[in-house]
Amino acid sequence: MDELKLLKIRQDKIDILHQMGIQTIEDLYLYYPYRYAILEATPLTQEKCTIEAILLEKPQTYFHSRVSRLFFTVLYEEQRIKVTLFNRHFLAKSMVEGMKITLTGKYDARKASLVASDIYLKPIDQCSAITPIYSLKEGINAKMLQSYIKKAMQYQMIEEDIPVSCVQKYRLLSKYEAIYKIHFPEVQEDIRQAIRYLKYREFFYFQLTMQYTTSQITKTKGISKEYDIHKLQSFIKDLSFELTGDQLEAVEDILKDLQSDKTMYRFLQGDVGSGKTIVATIGIYANYLAGFQGAFMAPTEVLAAQLYDSLCHTFKNKGLQVELLVGSHTAKQKEDIYQRLLNGQIDVLVGTHALFQEKVVYQNLGFIVTDEQHRFGVKQRKALKDKGVQVDFLIMSATPIPRTLAISFYGDMDVSTIETMPQGRKEIITKVVASTSMKPILTEIDEYLQKGGQCYVVCPLIDKSEAIECRDVQSIYDGMVSYFKDRYQIGLLHGKIQDSQKNEIMDKFKNNEIRILVSTTVIEVGIDVKNANRIVIYNAERFGLSQLHQLRGRVGRGKEQGYCYLLSTSSQELSKERLSFLETCHNGFEISKYDLSLRGPGDMLGNRQSGLPSFSLGDLSKDMVILELARKDVVDFFERNSQDSRWLLLLEKIRKQLEKNNQYID
Ligand code: ADP
Ligand code: MG
Fold first, then answer.
1. Which end of the chain is more exposed for a tag (fewer CB within 10 A), N or C?
2. Distance in Å, CA 243 to ligand 1 centroid
3. Ligand nearest to the Cα of 290, by number
4. Higher model confidence: residue 183 or residue 41?
5. pTM of the full predicted structure?
């Protein structure tokens, strides 16, 4: 049943509301204006201006076919102005000489005349000065939408669900008032107060979801793991390099968690190439020494295969049986893996989300490492729980964010951070190139390719509709093919290419058969090809800085110097400034802090990759304080095991929502 029908809205309008993403009655009143137009007196100009004036005469009314025209003279700051107003003849009877009126329109100084688009028959300070502006679709105007919103708010009781103590502490409006005022403000203070409430609620709700999820995951006791410390130490000593201080600390955090009977739910963050994988691998080894199986999950098959190779290398001669499980394996191969996994013949399983499918049964899984895209691991956790296993969780992220934010974002998850890079790592030389194409750098790239190097070319993911301003991956590929002719093999990768074909292209790139790889960002950031040391990024202004930083981390992975070219012709000062920041800054934390101060976190990492929450009103670059207050408040409610009725109501809501999304664990 379509809820919107209950409001007696016409079906054709309901269809449009659906297109606007409004499905339920609640969606209607939660559809906030994105800004407000505020009526304020302005100077007389040709642009749209607003003035208060005195009506000097009764208006004359003219009709011409279906158009009416009101014509009158007003006095504005000792100046007589002739005013024309179309299709408002019905106002004439209410307009009397000498009254103060407010007009909006365009002024023509030469003729001393004003064509009015709006009129209010009262002084400006009595006008309802604030008009909410909504994002609308053809067929629905703001007035209609507001009438639907009113209906919705009358139909459904908007119940307060934030605990009384919070409302009192911060002197917040009620939920009903806040929602009413965000749609129907009378003065600017109404908007301010409404937003204050709604932001707080949004953050409170978000924190509650995060912390609730975490508490569900860690509330059961884990397994306390005992391992041979000498073996572990000699494993670390045998590595081909020495761990950095940050890496050692992260290793210690992980080992402590493994040893304790608390379930590990830890977040390991560090720049691309900061050496997270080896830290996680040490954890996997300790877990193996304690007699448990480990699972290492990568976001894509290509990355899983790469990870598998690297683990095989690290674990050479250590007696571990490492296996790769990906969707493209044949049924027979999979069957064989399932069998050996169940028998305990496999110690470490590497793969994509295939690792947690129903058919995959572990003998005694103890430790899982996943990538940030599976950040909460909640679904996997549920799947595992159904299999009766209690495991430790480590989630890795290559988009580091400041610690305070991390704590807010990841609930009460523990955080380990690798900030320093291994020694000898060269910074990627980064240049902003003011161009929409590679033309200015083609010779440079060509010379580099002639010497045997390889090159990435990355373009933003785009809709066809945007293709005019932004070159799409196919046309860039075509351009490169026609320029380089048969001199170099060029590969093309994008989201629609099948996994098996993707693997083939990646293999060819790794083997240096394909010399130039043109791709959208669907291509994995973790790819490691040491011979590829040039990366060109089209329309760089469309990416988040952290994302660009991740992308450039694909080059300079070996001994050679890496170069990154950011193509952009954006004329906006801000976006120029943002991009050139990357020329000088090479620290992921600094970059995310900087980007965060300019844009929200949703943007910061680029849409697909962020995985970070986006808030409808809350703005993390400005509202960190509210977020932090909300976080502490939620911690407090959990700690006190509060029985506040509204708190319990909210908890119930969250539980239902998680259950609906199949993310609830119990
Ligand atoms: P991340 O997973 O954080 O992107 P990796 O673990 O893949 O980074 O490390 C990148 C490269 O640096 C790998 O080739 C790895 O062997 C190497 N590496 C890791 N730690 C160190 C270190 N402490 N000193 C030198 N090289 C290191
Ligand atoms: Mg443990």
1. N
2. 9
3. 2
4. 183
5. 0.68
